[in-house]
Each structure stands twice: as C-alpha cells, then as structure tokens.
C-alpha cells in the first residue's frame, strides 16, 4: 500500500507507512520515529482481523480492553475495535521495543487513548470502512483522521454546518468538481486537530478552520486570521484505495525523545518483573516483529 501527498507543502514528517500484517514494514515505522519523531501507519482491516475472536491470545493482546470488547454486540464493531487496538499495540511495541501484549491502553475523559505508564510517546488512532490508521509521536501531541476522498460531504450540505465563513468563501471559489474533495480535506484536518487536543467533536468545527489546499496548513480563526503558531504542523495524504489521511502534530518545545525503549525509560526492576511474568529471557530484537504468533 502506497501513499501520495496532496498538493499542500510537505510537512517535516514522512508519508504514512502501509503495514500489511504483523510482519509488515516495521523498520520504516521505527526509522520515521527516529528521523522525524513522528510515524503514521495505515493498514487494511482484513489484514488485522482476529482469526478466532475470543481466543486467549486476543484476550492477552486486548488486556484491559477485553471487557469493552465483550460488551460490543455488533460483530463488525467488535472486529474493528479489536483490530484497531491490536494494530495500535503492535505499533507502540515498535517504539517501546517490548512485546505488544505488555502494552496497556488508557483513555482520557473524552475517550482519547494513551499508553499507560509511558507519556513519552503520544498516540492517535482512526478507522473508517476497511482502513485502520495509527499515529505516534515523541514531539508532543498527535491526532490522525481518515475519510474516503469521494465521500459526498459537500453534496449533502455538510459544509454549511462544519465550515467557517472564511472556508465557505474559499470553497465557493473552487470549481464544482473540487469542492467535495477539498471539504473532505478540511474535515479530516479538523478531526485530526480535535483529536490531538483531546476534544473530539466537543470543539465545534465552525469555531476554527484551515486555509485553501496548496498553502501551509495552519489553524485559522473563523475570519481567516491566524489561530495557532508554528508549534503545530499538519499534513494531508492520499492513501492508496482512495482515502484522505490528515495528521496534526504539536511540538512541545523539548524535542523528540530519541530513545523510546521501555528498558531505557522504565525502572530496571519494573522491566525485570515484567519480563519474568512473561516468562521471557530477553527483549525481542524488533518489537512487534518479535511476536511469534499473531493471535
């Protein structure tokens, strides 16, 4: 799976990395983290479906999310929930260099996920239809969102409810055939930024906006005035299969953490206890790739 950028100027982080399964291009994910302090990856739901939902390995991978998984009654919702959380844990395992089953997710008041006991790596996830999307950063905060590029948001009049006056005027100046795709771009940027700051849909989309495609993406006030500074960076990509993917990343000003291995960040005694509990003699060489069996 490949990705191509939209016409906006390139951000400082790399394009989303396609991951086809547990033996995917995790080396590229780690390289992006080391070079850019940001890594974004996408995968197909079909490649991360559990073979036997409810199996002991799935329970071990979901950890504290196991009870939430059992409470879900719709089969498709259960599958998507399990696949997205497992992919997220495999991705975090690459950064922390630990087996994915030892990673636990927590959730903030608005439902924003985080890595329990590891605040050096911020995470975000999104999924739509058969696409799973994960973002990781050691810079500060990250938010990601994905949507089909051909989703008829404009045709359904959604622009009147989610766009600022400045954005509405910019959309009206576009040729009719470009208004729909550009509204999808704006929608995913707003979703990504809202997720990054932990607000989700609680932050009204008409209270902030973005400029036209082809310009550096910055948060703008409803009248088009600057809303944030250079501490925020945004990127929008077109992922193979027709999905628009947007990423919002903040820079805390302390620089990215170069060494995110759990053994470096955690008390050695804690690591020793975790290793003993898992019955393992040593740390796997390649994080997620060290997992011998998927489910």
UniProtKB/TrEMBL annotation:
<comment type="similarity">
    <text>Belongs to the P-Pant transferase superfamily. Gsp/Sfp/HetI/AcpT family.</text>
</comment>
<dbReference type="Pfam" id="PF01648">
    <property type="entry name" value="ACPS"/>
</dbReference>
<feature type="domain" description="4'-phosphopantetheinyl transferase">
    <location>
        <begin position="142"/>
        <end position="247"/>
    </location>
</feature>
<keyword id="KW-0808">Transferase</keyword>
<protein>
    <submittedName>
        <fullName>4'-phosphopantetheinyl transferase superfamily protein</fullName>
    </submittedName>
</protein>
<dbReference type="InterPro" id="IPR008278">
    <property type="entry name" value="4-PPantetheinyl_Trfase_dom"/>
</dbReference>
<dbReference type="InterPro" id="IPR050559">
    <property type="entry name" value="P-Pant_transferase_sf"/>
</dbReference>
<dbReference type="InterPro" id="IPR037143">
    <property type="entry name" value="4-PPantetheinyl_Trfase_dom_sf"/>
</dbReference>
<dbReference type="GO" id="GO:0016740">
    <property type="term" value="F:transferase activity"/>
</dbReference>
